[in-house]
Amino acid sequence: MLILLPPSEGKTPARRGRPLDLGSLSFPELTPLREDAVRAVAAVSADPGAPEVLGVSPNLQAEVDRNTRLLTGPARVAADVYSGVLYKALDLPSLDAGARRRANRSIVIFSALFGAVRLTDRIPAYRVHVCAHVPGIGVLDRVWRPHLAPVLERAAGERGLVVDCRSTTYAAMWRPPAHVARRTVQVTVPGASHMAKHTRGLVTRELVGREAPRTPEALADALSERFTVTLTPPERPGKAWQLAATAKD
Fold it and tell me: The pTM is what?
């Protein structure tokens, strides 16, 4: 099973430790573009007006300034960097050893700066919007698409479910091809975006806490104890299954 997650706006920087080593990250095929993206974001972050270019609120200038140290500041595992609503609900530190191994093996996090990473990859905290037009690189989500396609198709393998818990913005970075889409389940959550993030975190936690279901129907059944779920088959060939989930009280 492959679980696709968005990053979080909230990120917890490392206070000490070794700096970023791009060559050590998962999906090494992405290293050349990662190098270009990191250097470009670091450079533009030192310029006046950087928040506007990066699609970041001017109130977050301190986080933009931190971008200038992407290659020299300390890094930490992605599991500790991403700290927003979804990741609080996932609550990785409280997982038992088996669930943590499954999480490390199955979760892929999409990133405007690094393309895609695993929980165990060491990265610095950063701030840039995935739709930002970065000078010398281009619009990030569009730039990543052709590079992510072969990498994630291989990660999805020949069998096993792909559970897509990404937000719409990050879903645009990679759309599973038809032969993968037929075993892909897109998790949707009725209601506000804050609750959607929280519920997707709970869904992910539930899935890594058990052996992977093998079919969309088995997935829905596995979640039905803790969530009210509605599973909808693909509207046409080449499209993903849809699973609407609402956490039970």
Answer: 0.96
CA distance 110 to 130: 10
Average confidence score pLDDT of the chain = 96
Q: Which residue has the tokens 């007006």?
A: 49
What type of residue is 208?
Answer: V
Sole residue written with tokens 């979804």 = 86
Do 119 and 103 touch, CB atoms closer than 8 A?
Answer: yes
Residues 6+ apart with CB under 8 A from 109: 5, 6, 7, 78, 82, 116, 117, 118, 119
**Quick check: 164 and 188 in contact, CB under 8 A?**
no
Distance, CA of 62 to chain centre: 23
Enter the tokens of residue 171: 């879903």
Q: How far is it between the farthest Cα atoms of the chain?
A: 53
pLDDT band at 194 (very low <50, low <70, confident <90, very high): confident
Convert the pLDDT of each residue in 137-189 to its tens digit.
999 999 999 999 999 999 999 999 999 999 999 999 999 999 999 999 999 99
Q: What three-state secondary structure class fits 56?
A: coil
DSSP string, 213-235: PSSHHHHHHHHTTTEEEEEE--S
- CB neighbour list of residue 49: distance below 8 Å, 6 or more residues apart: none
Task: Using pLDDT thresholds of 50, 70 and 90, give the confidence band for residue 192.
Answer: low
What is the Cα–Cα distance from 176 to 162, expressed in whole angstroms? 9
Distance (Å, rounded) from C-alpha 201 to C-alpha 209? 12
Contacts of 217 (CB under 8 A, 6+ apart): 231
Mean pLDDT of 184-199: 89
**Percentage helix, strand, coil, to 5, in the chain?**
45, 20, 40
